[in-house]
Amino acid sequence: MEKIADGVFADLGNLETLDLSGNLLKVLASPRMLGGLSNLTELYLHKSKIEKIGDEVFASLPKLQILWLNENLLSALATLKIFKGLKSLKTLYLGNNKIQRISDGVFAGLNSLRTLKLNGNLLTALTSLKLFKGLSNLESLDLYQNKIETIGDRIFATMPKLKSLKLYKNSLSSLTYPRIFEGLSNLETLYLNTNRIEKIDDAAFMDLQNLRILGLKDNKIERISDRVFSKLHLLEWLSLEKNLLNDLTSPKIFEGLSNLEYLYLESNRLVKIEDGVFASLPRLAKLVMYENLLSSLSAGMFQGLSSLTNLDIEKNNIEKIEDGAFADLNQLETLSLSENLLNTLTSKRTFEGLINLENLHLRNNRISLIVNGVFEPLSKLSNLQLSKNEIHNLRNISFMGLNRLTTLRLYANLIESVSQGVWDGLQYLHDIDLANNIIKNISETYISKVKTTKSMYLFDNEISLIKPGSFANLNNLRFILIPDNYIGHISSAAFVGSPLLSRIDLSSCKITVLFSGAFSNCDIMKIINLSSTFIRVLPPYIFGSQKQMTLERLKLNSNNIRYLNFNTFESLISLDELNLNQNKIKYLENYGFNHLVSLKKLYLTSNEIDGIDEEAFTGLDALTNLYERHKQTQSELYLFGFTREEIDFT
């Protein structure tokens, strides 16, 4: 639609909502165009290619509350009578146009307006004191994603009830006018992120006594003076990340922020933080300083942070932690020190004071030595991350005192063996990750002593043998993941003694032989992955013969299997999916899958099948998907009893 004729809505006096979005209107010129809509409360004109709006076009809409004019082609709000008559308007959307100029007083008369969106336009300066005249009840103003370079003093003073002001993604280089936010005593949220701000006047925020959220992220701030935040007594959230801060050396920088709960300082250039800088932040709960250049943590750095629960100092250059550095942080729950340069944990006072710590992240350091008792103060620790370090051995009491530890990550270290008593006292340990080390013998890890473990990760080691009883008496064990090892065979009853075991992954090992009964006594097993090994033969009864297993998924793809033994799958009456893709199976004999009464998906793609017996698939009453593809296949397939109408043999 390109044009709306005058009087077309004249008989729609009871209409409350009108949606004219997505048209090609270009110009709204006539005051009579919307005549007759005296009860209209919502009007949608967005995405309509509107370039110009004439005077008094909306004058006949006294009850209009919502007006959408966003995503059009407006370049200016030049005439003073555009919004005349909209005495009930509460929400005005003008975002994502091409507005470069707004005439003084264009919003006069919009005394009921609560929300004004001018985001995504081409405004470059806000300098006239009359620009927002008439918006005495406005609560939310969006000016983000413009090109604003300059904001003059007292520009927002005509909006005393404003609560939210968004100025992010503009081109502001400074906030040097001391009265720039004067009159905004009710403002609660101010976003100045992603500008080019280098300097902030000491008095810039003086009038913002009710401010709760201040965003200064992604600017070019190098220094913060002592008085900038001094009047923001109710501020709860302060974002200073992605600036150019080099140091925090004055103890008065954060003075006055007695209610601050969240402080973000990540991705700056911080080299030094003076002791006591955070002492005036008694309610701070989260402090984020990752991706800076700190090389040490001093004993007084975190002084006064008695309410801190989360401290993130990842991706720095920390080599040293002074004794007592965390002594005041008795409420801390999560400490992140990953991706630093720590090489030893040698002092029993390193983590002193962290009596409520639950999560400790030390990934990607250079830690090679953990001295006895280092973790002893951490009586509530449940999650310890030590992956990607240089730990060679675990001494008998490396984890002494961690009575509540549930998760231990030691992935990608240099561990060959584990001392016999290392797991002593870890009575709640559920999750052990020893993957990507150089362990050769599972029995030398003494993992069978961890009676509470539920998940065990041993992939990408040098394990060549699983002895019977390696996992004996692990009554809570659910998962064993051992792919990418050198295991050559799986002996009978290799996994006996773990009655709750439900998943085993042995993929990409060197397995050539599976002995009968290899997975017997795994009564509630759900998933077994034996893909990408060197298995040639599936012997009878590898899953046992006396009991019926609950196995649901069996992956045997990418092996060298040539023949399917009649009794191989005998006990697998619950199997739902069987993957035999990419093997060397040449022939499918009668009744080979006869016991798989619950099987729904059977994968036989990329084998060497050149013959299929007439009753090869007999008994597969539940099968819904059968995949078999090979260019040499010549045999006719006889399928009976299938409950699915369509079977794919592509």
TrEMBL record:
Does the record carry Transmembrane as a key word?
yes
Main localization category: membrane
Tell me the keywords, alphabetical order: Cell membrane, Leucine-rich repeat, Membrane, Repeat, Signal, Transmembrane, Transmembrane helix
Gene3D superfamilies (UniProt xref): Ribonuclease Inhibitor
Mention any one GO cellular component term assigned to this protein in its UniProt record. Answer: plasma membrane
Subcellular location per UniProt equals: Cell membrane
Recorded hits in InterPro entries, A to Z, give:
Leu-rich_rpt (IPR001611), Leu-rich_rpt_typical-subtyp (IPR003591), LRR_dom_sf (IPR032675)
Its recorded name reads LRRCT domain-containing protein
The protein's organism comes out as Trichoplax adhaerens
